[in-house]
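Sanity check

After download, print the first record. It should look like this:
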Amino acid sequence: KWRDASASADEAKALKLIVEICTNGKKGYEEIEKAFEKVAEYGEKRLKRVEVLFTSDEAAALKALEQLSADFKGTPPAADAEVWLAKREKEAKLASAIARLLKVTAITDKHFKATVDGAQATLDEIVAEGLAKVETAQKIAAAGEVEAAKKSLNKLTIDYKGTEVAKEASDAVKEMDKR
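Expected structure tokens:
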């Protein structure tokens, strides 16, 4: 497959073959390492095109990122696209952004290390913001607005599902219910 992918003049066909090589589960072979290098090269070119597209048409750029994620599924460029999408979604679709980042941070393959580190940093920022919101809700409850605080905390539990924020918010509601 590597020879077919390397020799192909059709970039789409070559990409498909290279992604297959990268995602076949085998590790340590020279051809697989070359395939990861090549998929990174293709991915970088596509991400640069998307970056340029963001300057003129954000909707088209987001669609291109979704397509990139699908085309490169199981490879570092797909994970990069997921991180980019999460960063774009974190304001409007926080739960979706967190789900994307949690998926990427769960990857342990060495080829994904830089992407996983970047995803973790973004997730850490989001969690820090969420923990500050939990703290604010607790202050609101302490000021006597318990129901408003509980409503806010319950929303945080949903929006930050799978993170420390959801646990802290849930624990804070339970604590308020005890009083």
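If your output differs, re-run the checksum step. Summary of this record's structure: The CA atoms of residues 9 and 91 lie 41 Å apart.
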